[in-house]
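Translate sequence into structure tokens.
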Amino acid sequence: MSEVKAELNQLMCTFLGAFTNLGGTRPGVEVIRELFIPQGMIISNVAGKLVVYDLDTFIEPREKMLTDGTLTEFSEWEVAERTEIFGSIAHRFSEYRKSGCLKGERFEGSGRKTTQFVRTADGWRMSSMAWDDV
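Result follows.
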């Protein structure tokens, strides 16, 4: 069980790290396609506005914003989590924080994510994620 938890921890860490552009580093959002199953779904439900993304519609605008100067010095990190594993499925409820500079304005924020995982022939992958910001 601890090996599975370590693998899920790494998936989440890689996901959150994919958006980091601190010190001018290039974010690695393309790795999201490797973390999720091809049919993966990512859902924003911030301020009561529900937006459902497939992987491409999630990745493309974020990659643009993180590389064109709109969102700089950005990072997001998990501060708490609760993970449940049952056979070949798992669920994680995370608390996260984030900070950066959006259009020249410094900000800090936090929120919650719920992530579902499935074991595939290639190892554990994310199947869906939903989030809401505080």
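Note: The beta strands are 36-46, 49-54, 71-86, 89-102, 105-120, 123-133.
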